[in-house]
Amino acid sequence: MVVGTRDDADVIVVGAGPTGASAAYHCASAGLDVLLLEKAQFPRDKVCGDGLTPRAVAELVRMGVPIREQDGWIRNRGLRVLGGGHRLELPWPELSSYPSFGLARARTSLDQLLAEHARGAGAKLQERTSVTGAVRDERTGRVVGVTARPVDAAGRRAGEDTVYRAPVVIEAGGVSARLATGLGLAKREDRPMGVAVRTYFRTPRHDDAWMESHLELWSGEPGRSDLMPGYGWIFALGDGTANVGLGAVSSTAAATKVDYKELFAAWMANAPAEWEFTPENQVAPVRGAALPMGFNRGPLYGNGLLLAGDAAGMVSPFNGEGIAYGLQAGRVAADAISQGLARGTAAGRERALATYQRRMKDDLGGYYTLGRVFVTLIEHPQVMRLCTRYGLPRPLLMKFVLKLLSDCYEPHGGDWVDRTIAGLSRIVPDA
Ligand SMILES: Cc1cc2nc3c(=O)[nH]c(=O)nc-3n(C[C@H](O)[C@H](O)[C@H](O)COP(=O)(O)OP(=O)(O)OC[C@H]3O[C@@H](n4cnc5c(N)ncnc54)[C@H](O)[C@@H]3O)c2cc1C
To answer: Which of 51, 59, 102, 172 has the most CB atoms around its CB within 10 Å?
Structure first.
């Protein structure tokens, strides 16, 4: 039974991961009353690679998050790629739209930092509050709030359900998207889905200046089995440890039979010795999670509810990156909401809120469609083999690939590589 108080806000944000924190920060900065509900208590862990591309860095800069190294970050210069007997270092491109460095930071610390940043801007952050469902207007069906319950550190109920009301609600609850799912907004089965696992190791190379990726993940015996459509990563964290993991992608949401922990153990058995990834140096268990890709849930706006980040399947099918897109979605959602709430009429508000989906799809829809084609190609082990063997030694091709896969290209102008990717993303429809 729902009992309890009414806590009015202009906007309720469900989930204080990077997406929710960004939405809350930007809404609060625009002068809105924000209630940010988070079921966990910070600091909390999130299974992730902890790597931020220049695209994500640009979003942090927009939020005014301090990103100097003395603020607890480690910078990286680009990507070191290993595969097919090749090893090359690809610096992040020099562009006007993005910085030419990436960052890394463990999510236990990153997410707390971002949530505190949102709080600093005026958002009311309420931890240990698990959102259990939507409150809908009986007449119109519009989402006008949420029900939530206090929970303890283990996630167990710790009090009575409460209703919180607001004219707009943002679902930023991550891949489980409990609120959206409860409203019948199921994930699309025809969108790519990734699975990834990771752990942490102590390593003498904890301050390596490159994000390292290993393109050869063998499904069985190295050289004699199939190449998996994915990659392994080593992201140095500068604190004595590195985040080490691997992920693979499938063009549909159908479950695969791959045992990722076994795959990880096989990769570690062959990992370069200089990293010292020994059992004694492993400081965390291998944990895994799903990566929802290519806008696998929608609509992004309808009936008072906006979906953002993993809850909307915004992870890139090209590289498994989701933080940059969550931060972007939070910013664009906040803009649409602040414009909408200033309109004064319901029709005006809805027109402004509808721009959220349009802007996200205009920016990423074509690119994600290309990403889906990419996934269906690399699902063929022969294609993966050809790419690693013949693609890696070609510097010009790799420059193109780095910009394409990391979504770091000049959207307007730039060199021929930028213009080709931007042109392709524009002509390919969001489907
Ligand atoms: C192994 C792995 C490696 C990855 N590596 C990278 C990487 O290196 N770089 C990158 O950019 N991306 C990476 N990703 C993807 C990235 O982790 C996600 O895209 C990103 O976390 C999405 O942020 P989010 O805020 O949308 O969701 P989340 O980070 O999942 O945050 C959701 C928040 O909502 C809260 N919540 C959930 N349900 C409720 C509820 N009912 N009530 C209240 N609160 C709730 C959760 O506790 C959580 O704090 C990786 C993913 C995996 C699985």
So the answer is: 172
DSSP state of 251: S
Q: Which residues of 154-174 are buried (b: 16+ CB within 10 A; e: fewer)?
A: eeeeeeebbbbebbbbbbbbb
H-helix or E-strand spanning residue 362: helix 346-378
- pLDDT score recorded for residue 2: 42
CB atoms within 10 A of CB 31: 12
Superfamily of the domain at 193-292: D-Amino Acid Oxidase, subunit A, domain 2 (3.30.9.10)
- Say how many Å lie between the CA of residue 52 and the centre of ligand 1: 13
Separation of alpha carbons 107 and 36, rounded Å: 18
Q: Which residues line ligand 1 (CB under 6 A)?
A: 14-20, 37-40, 46-51, 56, 130-131, 172-174, 176, 178, 196-198, 245, 247, 289, 291, 309-310, 315, 320-324, 326
Q: What does the block give as tokens for 286?
A: 């291998």
pTM above 0.90, yes or no: yes
How is the beta sheet containing 74-76 ordered, strand by strand? 51-52, 102-104, 74-76
One DSSP character per residue, 365-400 reads: HHHHHHHHHHHHHHTSHHHHHHIIIIITT-HHHHHH
Among 25, 45, 46, 156, name the best residue to mutate to test ligand 1's pocket (greatest count of ligand atoms within 8 A of Cβ): 46
Atom of ligand 1 nearest to the CA of 329: 26
Task: Show me where the domains of the chain are located.
Answer: 193-292
Distance (Å) from CA 310 to ligand 1 centroid = 6
DSSP 310: G
Residue 389's pLDDT is 77
176 Cα: distance to centroid of ligand 1 (angstroms): 10
Non-local (6+) Cβ contacts of 309 within 8 A are 15, 17, 18, 19, 20, 172, 174, 322, 325, 326, 329, 330
Q: 326 is written with which tokens?
A: 């969550």
157: which DSSP letter?
A: B
One-letter amino acid at 359 equals: R
SS3 string, 257-302, reads CCCHHHHHHHHHHCCCHHHCCCHHHECCCCEEEEEEECCCCCCCEE
Helices and strands: H and E segment counts in the chain: 10, 19
